[in-house]
Amino acid sequence: MTYLHNIGTYFIMIKDIFRRPTKWSVMKPLILKDIDDLIIGSLGIVAFISFFVGGVVAIQTSLNMTSPIMPKYLVGFATRQSIILEFAPTFISIIMAGKVGSFITSSIGTMRVTEQIDALEVMGINAINYLVFPKFIALTLYPFVISIAMFLGILGGLMACVYGGYGTMEDYLEGVQLDFIPFHFIYAFIKTFVFAFLLATIPSYYGYFMKGGALEVGKASTTSFVWTSVLVIIVNFLLTSLLLG
Amino acid sequence: MIEVKDLHKSFEDAHILKGISTSFEKGQTNLIIGQSGSGKTVFLKCLLGLFEYEEGSISYEGRNFSKLSRNEKTELRSEMGMVFQGSALFDSMTIAENVMFPLRMFTKQSMSEMEDRVNIVLKRVNLDNAHKKMPSEASGGMQKRVAIARAIVNRPKFLFCDEPNSGLDPKTAIVIDNLIQEITEEFDITTVINTHDMNSVMEIGKKIVFLKDGLLEWEGSNKTIFKTENEAVTNFVYSSELFRKVRRMYLEEDAQ
Ligand SMILES: Nc1ncnc2c1ncn2[C@@H]1O[C@H](COP(=O)(O)OP(=O)(O)O)[C@@H](O)[C@H]1O
Ligand SMILES: [Mg+2]
């Protein structure tokens, strides 16, 4: 029963994001701030993780290719496939559920427990629009983050391959360009957009509707991380069976 | 002037306000007192239009909130100011930006007009050079002043304060009480204050409404509260020896 109630409240919240919009002069700086906090602020960690995980994928692939009949370019091919299809969109989204998600939940939750949300409502502001809409807009730039993750992941693979002595640059690059299917890109970016939506709305939901004090803000952030990740995984499974299956 | 008639408010299965009728006059400080959990904050949030209520009516100078159109509601909202218990300043904005915020939401004034108004109001609450500070850098007393400045910046007709001096030292608490009273009289505002501070009751209780378990148990003023025989009131107000002494002295004085 409570699950159904929560899901209902979530969808009502989604509708409220777009109702009674806040004045543009007030909204604009909020959007810029959220782009800075959520997108720009995540580039460092995303770049770091992508580059090194790309490297690890390349090393693992080449270590597991013990048979001499396997072509050398396979390392580049396998690295590209795993990074574009899963690692960049899905794995990075789980990382973002921790970083961006808990930031969103704790900042909105703190506003709830310190009555800042009530203060907004007293001024006749649609607080859901005021708080969640800028995050939603900021996260429409999320595909940009994932593109960087894809590029750096493949680059990391190349570096590890060449400097670790697992293969030549020519072989790796041949593999990266091999059998390229444009629909895989489309699939990856459809996922990215859906994950961006989940990343903006689920943590906002847990922050906005929380009750209690500072301790509960911490708990809400944890719950928000768990549910955002679970939904990313479920949606990933559904979209993959739908689009590639 | 605000008139409340037979107000009922519940949360799921908990009946919090069980039929409250009273009125609050213009140009004076009206106090709501009662123990923690007696429903003061819920009552205030009903007055603010933050909570919907199941039964009863609240009329603001003749306008019944629940019967207004959306534009009329926005209009009425722009006439209300609220000082929250923990000040509720927006912690991502400077003090000046906090005070300016209602003007940006409700008016079409130019930046320089808004800045002038913010300067006047911050001066009025005796905060002259804190414009650029963040709320987290201000003391509790300063934050309260900023909250008051934000509440009055748009010249409200109705001012609501939820325990405005909780968490302040006694001296600052008195300063804040006096500030609210002066502003109320100066601008002829209908002010409603939640408190459980006995100093405030004695000092600024022009009208006092005592809530107990969601019911209006007693109403009067800081003059009549000394004479009441209502046991719930005397138990609550004169719970400390100090205030029992004050009461005895007052009654003796009165008898002479
Ligand atoms: N949003 C809410 N949801 C459910 N119960 C609430 C809510 N707000 C207040 N209550 C309950 O209403 C009662 C009165 O609370 P309140 O008005 O905050 O008391 P106080 O007089 O201390 O301000 C309490 O029992 C509280 O638990
Ligand atoms: Mg209270």
UniProtKB/TrEMBL annotation, chain A:
Coiled coil: none annotated. One of its GO terms (molecular function) is phospholipid transporter activity. InterPro entries: Permease_MalE (IPR030802). The keyword Mitochondrion does not apply. One of its GO terms (cellular component) is ATP-binding cassette (ABC) transporter complex. The chain crosses the membrane at residues 38-63, 83-104, 141-164, 185-205, 225-244. It comes from the Bacteria. The keyword Membrane applies. Keywords: Membrane, Transmembrane, Transmembrane helix. This is Phospholipid/cholesterol/gamma-HCH transport system permease protein. It comes from Winogradskyella arenosi.
Automatic annotation (TrEMBL), chain B:
Residues 2-238 form the ABC transporter domain. It comes from the Bacteria. InterPro entries: AAA+_ATPase (IPR003593), ABC_transporter-like_ATP-bd (IPR003439), P-loop_NTPase (IPR027417). It holds the Pfam family ABC_tran. GO terms for molecular function: ATP binding; ATP hydrolysis activity. Keywords: ATP-binding, Nucleotide-binding, Transport. PROSITE patterns: ABC_TRANSPORTER_2. SUPFAM superfamilies: P-loop containing nucleoside triphosphate hydrolases. This is Phospholipid/cholesterol/gamma-HCH transport system ATP-binding protein.
